[in-house]
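Fold this sequence, please.
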Amino acid sequence: MKKYVYNGKSVTLSAEEYRSNNTLALMLHYDDGETEVITVNLQEPIQSSSLAYLDTNNQPGIEKFIQKNGLGLPMGVLTQSGFFKYPLYTIFTSEL
């Protein structure tokens, strides 16, 4: 797996699936063993194996990280869930 730096820490990424709808769940793996999901499952029909909402609420800076490393592009869609709007991204899973 390719190594990246996120918030000053060495990480790898993996593409998994949400069990409820088999859409992309992007996982961030830290070298210390910690793992975080950096997408949110909003149960929207547009979500797929390559379209995912980034968790910008709990992962500030994740959009910049994804774009800087050539891992995805914003689709220009924001979907509200609760009090927060999440951006939809095309994720280049082949780059992980």
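The longest helix spans residues 62-68. The two ends are 7 Å apart (CA to CA).
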